[in-house]
Each structure stands twice: as structure tokens, then as C-alpha cells.
Design a protein that fits this description.
The protein is mostly helical and 120 residues long. The chain has one domain. It is 83% helix and 0% strand. The longest helix is centred in the last third of the chain and has 32 residues.
């Protein structure tokens, strides 16, 4: 996979994740465990695949996914919660900060896999 296509796919995953989440869940009523499951079930495998497929610097894929999460959260809050749309920068910042954990974990696992594959 070429780097621009991989980074575009990483950005798309970052944007689609909050859109998909907010279309099915109300952020005021969703349980914390559900949020954790969504974050870990989607963002860890996505960042792992981006890291393994790009096989370059892990920071570019990580930053691209996080930028996508920020943009996707902004769009989601504006589209799905128009009554709270004035708070979209705060919600986007919080979601991006929370997304750092699973994205970093997936990138680290992907780095280990890529390093092990290059040793063989």
C-alpha cells in the first residue's frame, strides 16, 4: 500500500469512527464500558493495520487517525446534536485525547509485528 493511500485510509477510519458511534449512541446516556469497547474494538485494530501496512514511521499513521477522530467528532456533534453544536471543539478535544490510548496501543503492537516480520 502506498503511503498516501494508507494515510487516507487512516484518516477515513478516524472520521468514520465517531460518525458511526454517535449515530448509534447518545453521548449523555452511553455507559463508560460501551465507550471503552467501541474505542478498543475499532481503534486498536485500525491503528495496528495502518502501522503494519505502512511500515514507515508510526507517528504519521497515529497522527492521521487522531486527526480523523477530531474531524469526525466535530462533524458528528454538529450533525447529530445541533442543540449542543457550540460545544463541538471541547467534545472533539476530549475524544481525541481519549483516542490516544487505543491508537498508541495498536501502533505499538503493529510496530512489534513489523519488527518481528523484518527479522525473518
Amino acid at each position: 500500500m502506498t503511503k498516501p493511500i494508507g494515510l487516507g485510509a487512516a484518516f477515513a477510519v478516524g472520521v468514520i469512527f465517531p460518525l458511526f458511534f454517535f449515530s448509534f449512541n447518545d453521548p449523555d446516556r452511553v455507559k463508560f464500558s460501551a465507550v471503552v469497547i467501541w474505542f478498543f474494538a475499532i481503534l486498536i485494530p485500525a491503528s495496528l493495520l495502518v502501522r503494519v501496512k505502512l511500515c514507515n514511521k508510526s507517528t504519521s499513521g497515529t497522527a492521521t487517525i487522531l486527526a480523523g477522530v477530531f474531524v469526525g467528532t466535530c462533524i458528528s456533534i454538529i450533525v447529530f446534536y445541533t442543540d449542543r453544536a457550540n460545544l463541538f471543539p471541547i467534545a472533539a478535544a476530549i475524544w481525541t485525547i481519549v483516542a490516544v490510548i487505543p491508537v498508541s496501543l495498536g501502533t505499538a503492537i503493529g510496530s512489534l509485528i513489523a519488527r518481528m516480520a523484518n527479522k525473518k
